[in-house]
Amino acid sequence: MKIYRALKTRFGSGMWWPHETPFEVMVGAILTQQTVWKNVDLAIENLKKKGFMDPGPLAEAPIKEVEKCLRPSGFYKQKSARVQNLARYVTDNYNGDIGSFFDRGVDHVRNELLSLPGIGPETADSMLLFAGNRAKFVVDAYTFRVFTRLGVDFEGRYDVAQDFFEKRLPEDAELYKNFHANIVELAKNYCKVRPLCRKCPINEYCTYPGKRI
DNA sequence: ACCCAGGTGGCCC
DNA sequence: GGGCCACATGGG
Predict the structure, then answer these.
(1) pTM higher than the cut 0.85
(2) C-alpha pair distances (Å), A4 with each of A23, A47, A145, A168, A203
(3) Residue A36 approaches strand B within 7 Å at CB
């Protein structure tokens, strides 16, 4: 909670995941895997231009066309198959209605997402939090890096890390969104593989040996 | 010329 | 269950 407040003071609480629809968030969650957002944004714009940013049209789109759109976001063949599979799943089972897809027990929705190819724990939780507005804390590589340098041991496990945060924070989707966004901001600016610790806003909590460089 | 990026799935032991 | 590896483009 101290870290949350320190980061909020430094980075604020502006909206982070830009989108027009929940489905766009879900597609973006897959596209942003191991990829910078700038390239994801190009791919999303390409999909929108073709009218593919909806479950029905994306489900019906020729895969080659989808691949052309997704080229900038990397791993484009895999990602094309995966986003189209997601589109087909929600059209076939929920008539393309994302609202009704999320309108069930969180664990149930989460397991359903995890059963789809290309959706692992982080992507599922990103969808639940940012598209479904459910209070699921998202753990990514930045979260691991930042909190490992703060001296926390997650045993390298996603579920351990997630429990760590969900036990310590109020169950509040907006807070989770904000905290995750600010962890990413922190990591991109100060907590890279080679850290830039001089002006890091949470330096006083850090146990990383190189923090005095 | 490297190294990194808002992971996941497959294969091997 | 843990340790590699492929997947692919774009920027520092």
Answers:
(1) yes
(2) 28, 35, 16, 11, 14
(3) yes
